[in-house]
Every structure is written in structure tokens, then in C-alpha cells.
Amino acid sequence: MIERPHAQELIIGASLDSVFGPVILFGAGGTAVEALDDAGIGLPPLDAALAGDLIDATRISRLLKGYRDRKPADRAAIIAAIQAISALTADFGAIRALDVNPLLADEDGVIALDARIEIDPAKLDEAAPNRALAIRPYPGDWSEDVDLGPIQAHLRPIRPDDLALYGDFFARVTDEDLRLRFLSPRRHFPDQMLKRLTQLDYDREMAFVATDRNTGALMAIGRLNADPDKEKAEYALLVRSDLQGQGLGWTLLRRLIDYARAEGVRRIEGVILAENDRMLQMARDFGFTIARNADDLRLTTASLIL
Fold first, then answer.
1. What pLDDT digit, counting tens, does each position of 46-58 carry?
2. Which whole number is the average pLDDT over 87-101?
């Protein structure tokens, strides 16, 4: 018999919403789950950061931090359990509903005491990912290692937990390089803005990051934002100031072009300050057409038909 006298009873579930498709539920569990009515809802797939946000959206999250003689519950184990359910719903479209209740959580980890799952037999042979997902899964197959002389980089799509890398990254970017990237002077980046830059809908947006394979530090970012019909996508690049001139910008722009082609985007373009000679020359080398902005002569538009 399992005895965890100081454990909290939790529930992790999945169900199908008529509008959003698969959704993940987390909250206070046990036999009184309906009466407690303490749960948060998230859209899969969930990474560790989003799973943590789901926990923090509930009242029981305060108890999980520990109180009186109870030690904090193993948050990492709870997050891993949420991610496991999220991965199941993202990979298997046949899942109609799933409940793990109760899931006991204490300082020693988590353990499931009961679970149920409902399957749609007609969808058993459907290939992953789940077609009903409201959010496109993380495109991990666009990741690779790149060697650029002394630079050993890992190139991959951005993730929400990359938010933690931005502080050190921006500290190594000069005011002038930030001005060239954002088209005006800028140094302050609110947390809400950084979350918006790292939490993407991969169906319409993409950002590739280059990180140092040895330290994990963020070295460069390339972004692509497409309109709904994918007629056009706008791109932007920012390379850490101390690493410019070593091929990172070229590598990211090539990856953005390849990704846009694979997604069926017809044209990509970027708005570049007319004084940004280095970025304009790189665009010309890639075959972009450069045109002055008729409404603002300080700006140019670089366009490439795909």
C-alpha cells in the first residue's frame, strides 16, 4: 500500500475542446476535485516554462511550495508529468480524454494512483502530430550544429525557456546595433515583450537562435513572421556585437530562406535602415531586391521572391 502522508493530491488531464482542440488541465485532485474547482487550462504542446505557468495559475501551487512542517513538493517532477501528458496528446490524435487523478506530489517526487484514458478507434492509425492541435508542435527537426571557424553553434527554433538567455544577450549588443535592428534607439525590453518574442505560434512565426554549444549562451537570433496566406513573411536578424563578421548572420538568413521555402511562403522581405550598409550588402549577396521606402527615405525594403 502506498503511503505518502504529506503529499498533495493533484490532477492532470486532457480533453477535447470544441474550439481549441486538445487542452491540458492541471489542479487540485482527489475525490473532491469538482468541489475544489481549482484548475488551470493550457494548450499543448507544453514545454517546461509553460507547464510551470500552468501550475502557478492554480491555488494549490501555494501549498506545493511548502508550509509549516511540509517541505516543498518536487516541482520538476510535477512539470515532467504535465509535459508527459502534453506529449501524449500532441503525438496521438486518437486520445479523446485522459485523467491522472490523484497524482500524489511531495518532496520525493510524484506517483499516480489512478488514471483513465478514452480512445477514438477510428483515429488509431493517424500519424503524429495530432491534427486537432490549436498550436503547432515545436519543429525540432530544424535543429543542427554549425561550425564557423572558432564559433561552434547550435542552430534551432526558439523555445519559451530561451527568455532566460535574453538578458546576457542584450548586454553584449551595443546601443548602435540595437538601433539598427529595431529602427530606433532602444535599451529597455519589458518582460511581456520578451515573452512575446519567445512564445510563438510556429504555424505563422518562426525564430531561429544560435547558441554556443559549449556554454549555451545566446549568440544570434533570426525571425520570420508570415501573413495568414503566406504570401509574404517579414524577416529580421540580430547578431551579438562581439560575434559579428564571422558568418552567424549569413547562416541564420540562409536558414530563414530555407524554412520559408519549405513552408510555401512566396516572398520574404525585411525593413532595413538605409545606413545599415552591412545588412544591405548581405541582402544583395543573397539576391534580394533593394528599394527605398517612399514614405520614409531613412528606410529601405529588401525583398526576395521564393
1. 988 889 999 999 9
2. 93
Q: What is the DSSP string of 170-195?
A: HHTS-HHHHHHHHSS------HHHHH
Report the alpha-carbon distance of residue 177 to residue 238 in Å, rounded.
Answer: 8
118/144 same-domain check: no
Residue listed under C-alpha cell 490523484: 102
Distances (CA, A) of 220 to 135, 166, 224, 270: 25, 10, 14, 17
**DSSP string covering 209-233:** EEEETTT--EEEEEEEEE-TT-SEE
- The answer on 286 and 182 residing in a single domain is yes
Question: Could you count the other beta carbons within 10 Å of the beta carbon of residue 48?
Answer: 16
Q: Residue 126 and residue 117: Cα distance in Å, rounded?
A: 18
User: Which amino acid appears at position 5 of this protein?
Assistant: P
Q: Grid coordinates 546576457 are at which residue? A: 168
Beta-bridged to residue 206, according to DSSP, are: 224
pTM reported for the whole predicted model: 0.75
Domain count within the chain: 2
pLDDT digits (tens, 9 = 90+) for 214-223: 999 999 999 9
